[in-house]
Design a protein that fits this description.
This protein is of the alpha+beta class. The protein has a single domain, classed as 2,3-Dihydroxybiphenyl 1,2-Dioxygenase, domain 1 (Roll). About 20% of the residues lie in helices and about 40% in strands. The protein contains three helices and eight strands. It has helices at about 25-30, 40-45, 80-90; strands spanning about 1-5, 15, 35, 50-60, 60-70, 70-80, 95-100, 100-105.
């Protein structure tokens, strides 16, 4: 399987291409799908018809495919590294800036 385009697409589109004889389900190979990011992949899969087992296509990412109304749906979880969690904890203690009526957090 080959993937391309996600990093350069302004819409987050990733193109997938498959070799002849690919073991990936025909449904996944032939029907376009959308992907959703979830906080907890295993919880999101409970009670769903799973058509592709959980895999990790890159470090910190877990994905699975489910079937919904005849269409494949990709469900993704991004695990943050401990350094990212540390930065988030540190930024949570930073002061908040008020602009007009909208509160915004100071980002690292």
């Amino acid at each position: 399987m080959y993937v391309a385009g996600f990093d350069t697409s302004p819409y987050g589109i990733e193109w997938m291409r498959f070799e002849p004889g690919s073991p990936v389900s025909e449904l996944i190979r032939t029907v376009p799908h959308i992907a959703f990011q979830v906080d907890h992949l295993e919880a999101a899969l409970e009670g769903k018809e799973i058509i592709s087992d959980i895999s990790s296509p890159s470090d910190g990412v877990s994905v699975a495919m489910i079937l919904h109304n005849g269409a494949p749906i990709e469900v993704m979880e991004f695990r943050r590294s401990s350094s990212v969690r540390k930065r988030e904890r540190n930024s949570a203690s930073r002061p908040r800036v008020k602009t007009g009526n909208q509160k915004v957090g100071v980002k690292a």
